[in-house]
Design goal:
binds (Z)-L-Arabinonhydroximo-1,4-lactone, six-stranded antiparallel β-sheet, 49% strand, eight-stranded antiparallel β-sheet
Length: 498
């Protein structure tokens, strides 16, 4: 079998996977986005379909006012005795909590908090007992993996927190998971930080409380030594055995733009590698511990068809699944049909840590061609390429009595400005954004003519420039500082990737 990574593209970091029956489920972190913690479903570990979100209510998702990389950090999904559990951290509240459901396509419970610190929580079940794992630090501030037993009905701790393992000495020990395979307990984690030095390590013990013996050839997976290779930052992942007895490791990585200094702006995406067992009860991941763009799994004969091309339109997208908002939206400012969306601007702008009128898709490929017709009304309405509140580009329309002004603006840290502007004697405009790995190209269609409005570099929306944990969103937005109650209408959206 052959397939290409990433298998899930765009800003879907920190994947965790589990199997329930003959299906696989995966969740990812979502930070300040609403809804929170996307859920994907697959029947072959390669092709994934977004089926919903775990956190769909403000009572579960307390992210108002948080920074773009605050809020919901790495989640873990587990299936135990017919019930799904998703445990995660609201990093802005320094709170670890889990929710559960007996219907993966339905709503999840109210949050149940656990009084153990650290981030990247995980759950482990054995018999009638439940265990809560997270990263942490010992009395000397050294990173470690820690665990306590909990009452899964209440989240109450039933044991003290105990340190299980200090990892291999890399910085930022994160993403801990505990498994039992055969006679051994395995502890898996990531070190190095979710950047170019990222790596995956593991250890094993005959007891879940340790002592744990480090795999002799850690890191079991890393791309840190592959200069110039497209796929970088491989780390943070989870193990699952499939229904045919094959083993997989789903993990994060990012696609760098190899122009020194390299950068990435699509965020961290989901990759899958084969996991193979040795005779000695140790396992390896990937081909020689490397996360590959093209992966061959000779042990599996069936062919997997992947198709990353698409033509997205309002009627091919699902308003409740594919789109996201910044923090908790005022749904009264949004009206959607299968052919268009109307947005009522508020005083909040894209540079505010609030919930501006903004509805977005994750940018999931370097190259795309986007067009959309916008009738702004007497407010600002446009399409934003949004990394965070201080790193975003917009093609903007502003309606007047008989004309519409179209301009291209940028915000890069404390620098902002406009690269072009023009007026159309109309009340609406069809705007266009074309992208490749290095640039976004802006234009407007007027009387059948394409008028170029300039280009801006993708580099200045990258994680290396902006920092943080997100990836570029393609957002439709409206801003009306006077809050006049006008509606901006967006129609004929086309986003094509070949
Ligand atoms: C995630 C942790 C991390 O919880 O960043 O750098 C956090 N590593 O594993 C957000 O992705």
């Amino acid at each position: 079998m052959k397939y290409n990574n990433p298998v899930v593209r765009g800003m879907y970091p920190d994947p965790s996977v589990c199997r329930a029956g003959d299906k696989y489920y995966m969740v990812c972190s979502s930070f300040a986005l609403f809804p929170g913690v996307p859920i994907f479903e697959s029947d072959n570990m390669i092709n994934w379909k977004l089926i919903g979100h775990c956190l769909t209510r403000e009572s579960q998702l307390k992210v108002n006012g948080v920074s773009c990389s605050g809020g919901i950090f790495a989640p873990t999904i587990r299936f135990n005795k017919g019930r799904f559990y998703m445990v995660t951290t609201n990093d802005s509240l320094h709170e670890n909590f889990y929710v559960y459901t007996d219907d993966i396509y339905g709503d999840w419970s109210e949050p149940i908090t656990v009084e153990q610190d650290g981030i990247d929580p995980s759950l482990y079940f054995e018999g009638d007992k439940s265990y809560f794992i997270s990263n942490g630090s010992d009395e000397n501030g050294i990173g470690c993996i820690q665990m306590c037993e909990i009452d899964i009905e209440t989240g109450k701790k039933l044991s003290d927190t105990k340190i299980l393992w200090h990892g291999t000495g890399g910085r930022y020990l994160e993403a801990p998971h505990l498994y039992r395979f055969g006679d051994w307990y395995y502890l898996l984690e990531a070190e190095g930080g979710t950047e170019y030095g990222h790596m995956v390590n593991y250890s094993r013990s005959k007891s879940m409380w340790g002592p744990f013996e480090s795999y002799p050839h850690n890191p079991v997976l890393t791309n840190r030594n592959l200069g110039g290779y497209l796929l970088q930052g491989a780390g943070h992942g989870d193990i699952v055995e499939d229904k045919e007895g094959n083993w997989w490791f789903a993990h994060l990585a990012f696609r760098q733009i190899d122009r020194w200094l390299t950068f990435h702006h699509l965020g961290r995406e989901v990759c899958v590698e084969p996991l193979r067992w040795g005779e000695d009860g140790w396992f390896t991941i990937g081909n020689d511990g490397i996360a590959g763009i093209e992966v061959e799994v000779p042990e599996i004969s069936n062919d997997i068809v992947q198709d990353f091309s698409y033509h997205k339109t309002f009627d091919t997208l699902d308003w409740n699944k594919d789109w996201c908002y910044l923090r908790i939206p005022n749904k009264g400012n949004y009206k959607m049909t299968d052919r268009n969306v109307s947005l009522r601007g508020s005083k909040y702008t894209l540079s505010d840590l609030a919930s501006p009128t903004f509805i977005a898709l994750r940018q999931d490929e370097f190259t795309m061609e986007l067009s959309c017709k916008i009738r702004p009304g007497r407010q600002e309405a446009g399409i934003s390429l949004y990394m965070d509140d201080t790193h975003h580009y917009e093609i903007v329309t502003e309606g007047g009595d008989e004309q519409v002004r179209v301009s291209v603006r940028y915000t890069i840290g404390c620098v902002s400005g406009e690269i072009s502007s023009m007026e159309l004697m109309k009340k609406k405009a069809t705007v266009q954004i074309r992208s490749d790995a290095l640039y976004y190209y802006f234009s407007v269609e007027a009387d059948g003519e394409i008028i170029e409005l300039g280009k801006l570099e993708t580099r200045y929306l990258s994680s290396e420039v902006a920092g943080g944990f997100t990836g570029v969103l393609i957002g439709l937005y409206a801003v009306d500082r006077e809050e006049q109650g006008e509606w901006a209408k967006f129609s004929k959206l086309n986003i094509i990737h070949n």
